[in-house]
């Protein structure tokens, strides 16, 4: 009788599980072993261990009682269910984008994400709380201090791993980390953000990747970026500790914040790129975006750092030889110039700047800064007794759209709005730069004098030759120009800085064959070398959720102007709109991408 009862229970187990009520909205997130137990006169009888009835409990943004409930269905489809995203990078004046395969539904990814919490030895009691889960993951996604998922590298040397720009998505990274238990090399901010987004969506937390153009890294927490200049206009690198990133990517996660006053729930900024230490670990957030906007940086977690990223002032200070410091210019509009994310249901840009800050120049924007200072941020640089320069001479410059391997021009414009005659001593510096704002090498240095008649303007052009920058290029082919000018009659100093990202060739993807679930189709990845030199040790990568697992292929050399092709047979298993993503990386050329949108049909009925 006992064997019969046990056998019947094993058959009934899955049906009983299907009939159970929903789990509690505060239930621990993770993998549960499910079985049926019955009290009998002979003791407890329990079904045998059966992996097929193991059950995963996730956060549920469809459940009104859940801390991550999101009421809008289109937003749930985008921020939870969409497994392909767009990440924006480049420069404010030249925004570029690349697709990213989140792959949260791919085999093994859910187990890999749960492993991240296990590796962190996170208490089970906290695994039902999205605040604690996102904060732990913020630390664990980087390997800075805890053997986390990704090793960050910004030095352009990637001999022991994959260059950050070569990754096409999160799947390979998470699966490798799960199988090896060791950090994966290498990542930069968009890689950290892409993988973090996979983690959050996989566990049911609505999430999106955000890009902030001209993102401040405030090292001394005084809410201003202090750029110290020598009297000749050069940047004083010893005094200048702050930096401005061309762009920086982080994540937003949607959740309630019962630990904060009413109104500070919703989108929370979380960042796994290792920048600053927070409570003993390299992590950031969750910080209420609404609190950041209003300057309420007293609320946890790491709101002062996020506030500085989007709302600092940029201050140019001349450090004189006699030890005095003169504030030459203050730019209140440079930092946090534009904050964007992917639009819902499309690949375009959604401007979310107004969710982080009030419009520049409005009274509310300055009030938010005053509130932030009141809540404990360090006071700005003491400029008491310092004379702020005032001049009716203005300067600006533009960088011509530049193509990799081609010459281009920088045009500087000087404008006099007064009745005086002026002479200016100007200085232009061109540097290859990391997107973090750190300069690698100066490839261009030019000085010139300018005479300005009253109420007139004058343009100066500087030619930048390809040979001057090609040998110094870094990961993203980013060039930074710094122009300073001293008005000799008043000793005022004018300063402007801008970055340009060179236009890089693309990878071409072609498909032939039936675009149907279960049918073979041939994917061709093609690239033509536009440079005058051979590319060596070239890796090409291909990815597409629901179409193919991530693949890679190496070419030892691609000669100038020659074309290489790589073919792979793919068999789609998911219907609907899909995307193929390809990238290319070599010793001398990176950040080369390509993508192709496909509409995959359901399997034809026989």
Automatic annotation (TrEMBL):
InterPro entries: Ig-like_fold, Ig_E-set, Papain-like_cys_pep_sf, Transglutaminase, Transglutaminase-like, Transglutaminase-like_sf, Transglutaminase_animal, Transglutaminase_AS. It comes from the Eukaryota. Signal peptide: none annotated. SUPFAM superfamilies: Cysteine proteinases, E set domains, Transglutaminase, two C-terminal domains. Residues 181-274 form the Transglutaminase-like domain. This is Coagulation factor XIII A chain. The lineage of its organism: Eukaryota, Metazoa, Chordata, Craniata, Vertebrata. The gene is F13A1.
């Amino acid at each position: 009788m006992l064997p019969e009862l046990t056998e019947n229970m094993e058959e009934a187990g899955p049906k009983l599980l299907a009939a159970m009520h929903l789990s509690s909205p505060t239930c621990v997130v993770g993998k549960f072993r499910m079985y049926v137990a019955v009290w009998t006169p002979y003791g407890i009888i329990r079904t045998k261990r059966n992996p097929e009835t193991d059950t995963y409990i996730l956060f549920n943004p469809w459940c009104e009682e859940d801390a991550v409930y999101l009421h809008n269905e289109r937003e749930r489809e985008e921020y939870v269910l969409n497994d392909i995203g767009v990440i924006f990078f480049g420069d404010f004046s030249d925004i570029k984008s690349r697709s990213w395969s989140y792959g949260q539904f791919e085999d093994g990814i859910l187990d890999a994400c749960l492993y991240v919490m296990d590796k962190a030895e996170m208490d089970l009691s906290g695994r039902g709380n999205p605040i604690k889960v996102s904060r732990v993951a913020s630390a664990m996604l980087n390997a800075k201090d805890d053997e986390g998922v990704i090793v960050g590298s910004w030095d352009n040397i990637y001999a022991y791993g994959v260059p950050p720009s070569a990754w096409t998505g999160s799947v390979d990274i998470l699966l490798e980390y799960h199988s090896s238990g060791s950090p994966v090399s290498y990542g930069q901010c968009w890689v950290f953000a892409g993988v973090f987004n996979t983690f959050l969506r996989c566990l049911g937390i609505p999430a999106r990747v955000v890009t902030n153009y001209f993102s401040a890294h405030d090292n001394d927490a005084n809410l201003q970026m202090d750029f110290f200049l020598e009297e000749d206009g050069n940047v004083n690198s010893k005094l200048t500790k702050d930096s401005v990133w061309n762009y920086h990517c982080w994540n937003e996660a949607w959740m309630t914040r019962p630990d904060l006053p009413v109104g500070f729930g919703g989108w929370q900024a979380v960042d796994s790129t290792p920048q600053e230490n927070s409570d003993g670990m390299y992590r950031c957030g969750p910080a209420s975006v609404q609190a950041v906007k209003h300057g309420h940086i007293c609320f946890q977690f790491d709101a002062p750092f996020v506030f500085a990223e989007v709302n600092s002032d940029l201050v140019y200070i001349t450090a004189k030889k006699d030890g005095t410091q003169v504030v030459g210019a203050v730019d209140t509009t440079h930092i946090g110039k534009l904050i964007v994310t992917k639009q819902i249901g499309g690949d375009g840009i959604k401007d979310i700047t107004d969710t982080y800050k009030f419009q520049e120049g409005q009274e509310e924007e300055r009030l938010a800064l005053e509130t932030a200072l009141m809540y404990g941020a360090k006071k700005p640089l003491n400029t008491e007794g310092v004379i702020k320069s005032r001049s009716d001479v203005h300067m600006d410059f533009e960088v011509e759209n530049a193509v990799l391997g081609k010459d281009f021009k920088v045009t500087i414009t000087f404008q006099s709005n007064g009745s005086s005659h002026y002479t200016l001593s100007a200085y232009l510096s061109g540097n290859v730069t990391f997107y973090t704002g750190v300069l690698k090498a100066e490839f261009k240095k030019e000085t010139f004098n300018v005479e300005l008649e009253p109420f007139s303007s004058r343009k100066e052009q500087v030619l930048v030759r390809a040979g001057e920058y090609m040998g110094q290029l870094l990961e993203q082919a980013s060039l930074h120009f710094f122009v300073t000018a001293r008005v000799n009659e008043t000793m005022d100093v004018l300063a402007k800085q801008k970055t340009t990202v060179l236009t890089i060739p693309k990878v071409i993807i072609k498909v032939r064959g039936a675009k149907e679930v279960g049918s073979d189709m041939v994917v061709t990845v093609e690239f033509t070398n536009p440079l005058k030199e051979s590319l060596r040790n070239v890796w090409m990568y291909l990815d597409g959720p629901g179409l193919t697992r991530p693949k890679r292929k190496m070419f030892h050399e691609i000669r100038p102007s020659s074309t290489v092709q790589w073919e792979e047979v793919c068999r789609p298993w998911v219907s609907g709109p899909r995307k193929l993503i390809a990238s290319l990386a070599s010793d001398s050329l990176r950040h080369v991408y390509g993508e192709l949108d496909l509409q995959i049909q359901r399997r034809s009925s026989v």
